[in-house]
Amino acid sequence: MVNKLDKLRKIMVQEKSSSPIAKRPVERLSPNPDVGLNAQQVQERISAGQQNFDSTPATRTEKQIALRNICTLFNLVNIIFFIAILSVGSVKDTLFMTVVAANTAIGIIQEIRAKRSIDKLSFLTAAKATVLRSGEKQELPIEEIVLDDIIILSAGDQVPTDSVVVSGFCEADESFLTGESDAISKNVGDTVLAGSFLISGSVHVRADHVSADNYISKISASAKTVKKQVNSEIMRTMKSIVAVISVALIPISIILFRNQLALPDATTQSAVLNTTAALIAMVPEGLMLLTSTVLAASVVRLSQKHVMVQELYCIETLARVDVLCLDKTGTITEGTMTCKELVLLDESYKADAPKALASLVCALEDRNATFSAIEKAYSDPTPWTATKTAPFSSRTKWSGATFEAQGTYILGAAEFVLPVRSGSLQEALFDYSQEYRVLLLAHSDETLPPEGLPANLHPIALILLQDNIRKEAPATLRYFREQGVICKVISGDSVETVSGIARRAGMENWDQCIDMSQISKKDIAEAAEKYTVFGRVTPEQKKLLVKALQKKGHTVAMTGDGVNDVMALKEADCGIAIAGGADAARNVAHLVLLKSNFDALPKVVEEGRRAINNIQRSASLFLVKTVYATILSVAFIFITAPYPFQPIHLTLIGLTTTGIPSVVLGLQPNHDRVQGHFLRNVLTTAAPCGITIAFAVLLAVICGQAFSLAQAQVEAMCVLFTGGAILILLFYVCHPWTPIRAVLFGSMTFLFFLGYFGFHGFFSIERFAPSSFLLLVLIGVGSWEIFRILWQLFHGQKISLIPKPANDYEHPVQTQHRQRQRH
């Protein structure tokens, strides 16, 4: 089965990437709404290019991924350095490009793996449409719809192409196109636009435009790109680092090259090598690639857990979420209901009430969870014949039908069916609504009028329905509560029903509930913080609740499966859709739970933590180079001395202390809770080591001049100080120890000293003269003291002889934050 799906996916991808046939006019048809086009008419339209082609690929192509990873600013800078070094004949010093090439290759491979995983999942969840051809229903990808096709649409479906209603009635939400969230009634002859979606009703429509002639090319792309920019702290930090370094590189390189060239006995080769050595270290060339590599690996792992990631950085965002807004249906509940009881209000209807329910189900085309539950509980082989029907509308909150010789039966929310109710009926409604979703069945001898309800309605029964709670929901809610994430339920159902479901699911503070139909727009911000359960919420209010929580400084995730959740999903920092829900909800979400498995969310959070914490560990190693190299580059603008590094030195240091360790650490398990700000955390770890290295190198250069040491001796000391200092940082970063981290630290230390002493000739490192040894020890001891004090100051530790790893010590600010959360 899997092989067949893969083959079909490849065929579809190839067809999608090929150029569509040039369009030519065809004779317009008005096929029978119950029959549709025949095979010959379909083939004529395909041959004429009148097919609903969508040229927008679901993901980047493999070629685009390769170019995106190769054509970066940092790679361009490194290529310029590479050419400059080759031009002066120092081939050995271009070895740093192998590290750059390896990082780029790893990034490309991981992103392609992630792309292939997403493509497979996208194929399985691709939007399809039900089309009538030669009287038979066919489920086709929306790209295979042709002009004048008859398409069957029902509640929750997204309209695949501009169409005209030819039978039935529906309500459509065109907020994608108009910005107005109000439902718009669509009757025969009305146009439904591509990208809108049905809120209620069921219709047959005729495709009026296809491909570029309608909105489908925009909608299929904007269904993903219309989403709000992901709130990613890592992305913002990376962009800031790139911007700062980009601005600094050009003036520093010009001034530094001029200064190095002006030194006594300087040659063009020495000036080029010294300048490139300074600038190479400034550029954290592997950091951006490492970030995308780690996140891409997370995408692959999540796809194996049946979670489709539609936005790479949303993995990080969900790990930082502190408020999770849940739509009741499809998340806490299964999206199905059980009809528990029929409570008669008038005993004279004891026989007619069940038959009326069975007849309503047969007469109406509403196929939602409510009607499915009623259909399962009440069926009749000989239902009454309906002469007039009124489908369910989100505006009226009821549906009904007039039957031959039986009058009219109306089923819906009591407050809409009977605005004026007796005291006993109101009391019964209140009591039952604490546990159930309650619908009122009413009867009238009058027929359905063209608009509104018939006169003389008489309440005859209450239908008690109960949502089926997902088995995994209590455990999932408990997990988020333990992680300090506030969960809120937002639903269009009555507040009593929603709070009852929250209680059954084990949600904390389920009794802090509010009816949003009684709340004005100006009071939403206060209500958002104060309450846990929100009932009778409109789609617009869902969006406003999310925005209100964001304004209070919260990072908000929203789960949903219906068309009424679309605006809130778009607005949330991380939108999570259920695969079994509406097309529109899946299209705007950042994450899609492919098996509608609510219990997958903790796995996504853990994957996000793994990614953030590991990127943080590795980034500190990369930014050590940037910190010390920036300080030294600026310092050597004013110091009249050769720069004490060559590019080959940095290859040894970078490979053993940063390159290999960052990749290994970036893929390690790590589910620690994310704390603090990314850049602050990284610099807190990197700055003490970077400043210490800059101090040691400057002191070595000054002492070398004072004691007339050979430049090669000074360079040997600087390489040892730099490599040794970053290895000490690696020791702290590897904490807490695991077997893999212990092996990593031991092997990297061995490789560095093997290169330093065993292959010193290849790496242009001169052996120490006895006269340099005492200076080496003194500067080393002084550097350790500076590192110790800086580390403890940056991490808020008390000054002691041996600094503690950051993981062993909790900063006072973190302690206060934890105590506030516990309180």
What do you see in this structure?
The protein has 823 residues and is an alpha/beta fold. The chain is 51% helix and 15% strand. It is built from 29 helices and 21 strands. An eight-stranded mixed β-sheet has the order 8-21-20-19-9-16-18-17, sandwiched between helices. Strands 1, 2, 3, 4, 5, 6 and 7 form a seven-stranded antiparallel β-sheet that branches. It has a six-stranded antiparallel β-sheet with strand order 10-15-14-13-12-11.
List the helices and strands and how they pair.
Blueprint: H1 2-17, H2 39-47, H3 62-70, H4 73-87, H5 96-124, E1 128-133, E2 136-141, E3 150-154, E4 163-173, H6 175-178, E5 184-186, E6 191-192, E7 197-207, H7 216-225, H8 233-261, H9 268-282, H10 287-304, E8 307-309, H11 314-320, E9 323-327, H12 328-332, E10 333-344, H13 352-363, H14 369-377, E11 386-390, E12 398-403, E13 407-412, H15 414-417, H16 423-433, E14 437-444, E15 458-469, H17 473-482, E16 486-490, H18 495-504, E17 513-515, H19 524-530, E18 533-535, H20 539-551, E19 556-560, H21 566-571, E20 574-578, H22 583-588, E21 591-593, H23 601-638, H24 647-666, H25 678-706, H26 711-733, H27 739-758, H28 770-794, H29 812-822
Parallel strand pairs: 9-16, 9-19, 16-18, 17-18, 19-20, 20-21
Antiparallel strand pairs: 1-2, 1-3, 3-7, 4-5, 4-6, 4-7, 8-21, 10-15, 11-12, 12-13, 13-14, 14-15
Helix pairs in contact: 3-5, 4-9, 5-10, 8-9, 8-23, 9-23, 9-24, 10-23, 11-23, 19-20, 23-24, 23-25, 23-26, 24-26, 24-27, 25-26, 25-28, 26-27, 26-28
